[in-house]
């Protein structure tokens, strides 16, 4: 990437995390590529800073973009650098994340290529992924009753609805099952999740959403259904990578239009407070201060001070 600077001087408040089939956001001007080292290592990919013109002020708004599985999809779901991704984004000023995910549908009415803006998650990961910033000598607990940010979700849903009828079908709510993978589910598991009321299934929402919550970042995932997992039909209908990639590719234009519509909306001045997630600011200053200074491990304290400058002095 010759000629593109590796620094960007202004804070960046909005980020997009791209998933399967979305390794970049074409149509936006790349103004910088950042390689950020965090106490949790390097992110899944360099962070691209894109310029997006605000529809109201006409001014360029910077957007950060990370490719969750790496630039070449080399990271399996359990290998995604979730802590580094979220820490690096927070360090450049990000307080709003729109995350994109290819999901299996657990309900007949959610058809392949439909979009779902989920409002709940059930954790079926197996505890093998690093899932918190608060460990190793500093304890913190954050509420996770609403895993997605309700205010951001409302904006995302409105944008999705504005595209409806134009090749976009949107389901306003949904229970997302996040499984461990990388193997897909057994039919018994798929039916179990359906009996729990699951709408869609992926392998990526967690711990991404938990870490975003700990980092005081408003987070909403946009899901696109690519298959009916394995609960419906015969063997030939079962999910496979070809099926997922086929639907992702065929509907990539709509996925990118959806993301662009959300970025357009978030770039309006009326959302200035929202994109800074002012309603979440300072919650970890208290929630992360459980461990008395005298009992903190120096290493944990140093890492958390990097993530939250001024919180734990
Ligand atoms: C390629 S199918 C399984 C894979 O697809 C989803 O990826 P992402 O959420 O990053 O779009 C799912 O979570 C799995 O990682
Ligand atoms: N059926 C499925 N299960 C888990 N993750 C997926 N991503 C896309 N389809 C999926």
Automatic annotation (TrEMBL):
Q: Which residues bind substrate?
A: 203, 227-229
Its family remark reads: Belongs to the PNP/MTAP phosphorylase family. MTAP subfamily.
Q: Which HAMAP family match?
A: MTAP
Gene Ontology cellular component? cytosol; nucleus
Reaction(s) this enzyme catalyzes, per UniProt: S-methyl-5'-thioadenosine + phosphate = 5-(methylsulfanyl)-alpha-D-ribose 1-phosphate + adenine
Originating species: Westerdykella ornata
The cross-references to SUPFAM superfamilies, in alphabetical order and at most eight, read: Purine and uridine phosphorylases (SSF53167)
Q: Which PANTHER family match?
A: S-METHYL-5'-THIOADENOSINE PHOSPHORYLASE
Q: What does this protein do?
A: Catalyzes the reversible phosphorylation of S-methyl-5'-thioadenosine (MTA) to adenine and 5-methylthioribose-1-phosphate. Involved in the breakdown of MTA, a major by-product of polyamine biosynthesis. Responsible for the first step in the methionine salvage pathway after MTA has been generated from S-adenosylmethionine. Has broad substrate specificity with 6-aminopurine nucleosides as preferred substrates.
Site entry: Important for substrate specificity: 185, 241
Q: Does the keyword Manganese apply?
A: no
NCBIfam families in the record, alphabetically? MTAP
The record ties this protein, via Gene3D superfamilies, to: Nucleoside phosphorylase domain
* E.C. numbers: 2.4.2.28
Q: Chief subcellular site? A: cytoplasm
> What is this protein identified as?
S-methyl-5'-thioadenosine phosphorylase
Molecular function, one GO term? S-methyl-5-thioadenosine phosphorylase activity
């Amino acid at each position: 990437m010759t000629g593109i600077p590796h620094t960007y001087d202004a804070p960046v408040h909005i980020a997009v995390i791209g998933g399967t089939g979305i390794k970049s956001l074409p149509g936006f001007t790349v103004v910088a590529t950042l390689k950020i080292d965090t106490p949790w290592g390097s992110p899944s990919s360099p962070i691209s800073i894109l310029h997006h013109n605000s529809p109201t002020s006409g001014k360029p708004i910077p957007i950060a973009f990370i490719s969750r599985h790496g630039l070449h999809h080399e990271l399996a779901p359990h290998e995604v650098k979730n802590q580094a991704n979220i820490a690096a984004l927070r360090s450049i000023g990000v307080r709003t994340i729109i995350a994109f995910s290819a999901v299996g549908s657990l309900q007949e009415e959610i058809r392949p290529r439909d979009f779902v803006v989920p409002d709940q998650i059930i954790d079926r990961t197996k505890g093998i992924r690093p899932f918190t910033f608060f460990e190793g000598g500093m304890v913190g607990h954050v509420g996770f009753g609403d895993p997605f940010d309700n205010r951001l979700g409302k904006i995302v849903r409105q944008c999705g609805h504005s595209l409806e009828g134009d090749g976009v079908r949107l389901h306003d709510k949904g229970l997302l099952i996040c499984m461990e993978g990388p193997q897909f589910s057994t039919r018994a598991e798929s039916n179990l999740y359906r009996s729990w009321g699951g709408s869609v299934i992926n392998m990526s929402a967690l711990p991404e959403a938990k870490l975003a919550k700990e980092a005081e970042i408003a987070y909403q995932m946009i899901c696109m259904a690519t298959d009916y997992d394995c609960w419906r039909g015969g063997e030939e209908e079962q999910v496979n990578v070809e099926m997922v990639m086929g639907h992702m590719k065929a509907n990539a234009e709509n996925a990118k239009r959806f993301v662009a519509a959300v970025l357009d909306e978030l770039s309006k001045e009326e959302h200035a407070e929202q994109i800074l997630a002012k309603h979440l600011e300072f919650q970890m200053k208290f929630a992360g201060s459980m461990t008395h200074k005298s009992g903190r491990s120096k290493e944990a304290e140093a890492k958390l001070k990097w993530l939250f400058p001024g919180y734990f002095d």
